[in-house]
Amino acid sequence: MQDPSRWRFFKRGWHLHRRTGKRLHHAYLTYIGMTLLVVLAIGLWGYIQAEQIEIIKLRHPMPGLEKPVRVMLLSDWHLGIHPISVSRAQEIVTEVNFQKPDLIVMLGDYVDALTPYDLSIDQVRLALQGLQAPGGVFAVFGNHDGWYGRPKLRKLFKELNFTLLENSHASVALPGVSLMIVGVEDDRTGSPNLKRAFAGLSSTTPTLLLSHDPVVFTGAPDRANLLTLAGHTHGGQIALPFFGPLTNMSRASNRWSEGWVDKPNSRMYITTGLGTSILPIRLGTLAEMVILTLSPLSPSPNTSAAPLHR
């Protein structure tokens, strides 16, 4: 015969276990719910932040330059993924023209090749066709352009009178200005060749080197009258406080994610670009368009930010 007191002991234990289990289950569900809410809030904030574009104003001394030249620097449009729709791109083009730069340089990834939408070349034309500057529009390709299709972009850029540089160089058509633009291919979908790009170019001529990926700076000539301009990194797109970018998607160091990078005699500026890729969010780093004034007189570069003109 079973001991009734022993049975009551096990019964109480079972009920206690059920009550404790329910509490733990409720606590677990509460924890999961709160975590999901936090993740959703962060994602929504990042989605909104991706829409914000700063106008960054820089000044850089360029030995040998006869007079100041205002350069508009644009990179990483990633048309087809939030926030850069065709209509948003047209707004950006309007802002660029409002700023009246002497010339425009573009550093690749005009289309996001990973978007689920099949963006037509006609839509790309609608997005970019208004860009204009007295000194011309100069462009290089990025990795997404290679995946999207360089031949159709080459044809479009020719129609739009953009000067496409693929391991080549061209002069700027501005009165009283001696300035060369060198452009190299992307290192993921092309074959960057600095020797070919600089072939026949005098080392005494003030020069801008355009590269989609900042890694090209490692092999670039180190001279004071050469400034390298790069994009690709999106500033990391997600950058954490005290840690910085999770990744910059470049073959270069994570330290080369945005802003100025120095060699003994030359510099590079890495722009955070306009759009996003993979995830349509930005955290800890804003999109930007850059107005770079090349000056023969300015003693040192400086930076300021202004809101996007509407």
From TrEMBL:
Keywords: Hydrolase, Membrane, Metal-binding, Transmembrane, Transmembrane helix. One of its GO terms (biological process) is lipid A biosynthetic process. One of its GO terms (cellular component) is membrane. One of its GO terms (molecular function) is metal ion binding. Gene3D superfamilies: 3.60.21.10. The chain crosses the membrane at residues 28-48. Residues 70-216 form the Calcineurin-like phosphoesterase domain. This is Metallophosphoesterase. It comes from Magnetococcus marinus (strain ATCC BAA-1437 / JCM 17883 / MC-1). The lineage of its organism: Bacteria, Pseudomonadati, Pseudomonadota, Magnetococcia, Magnetococcales.
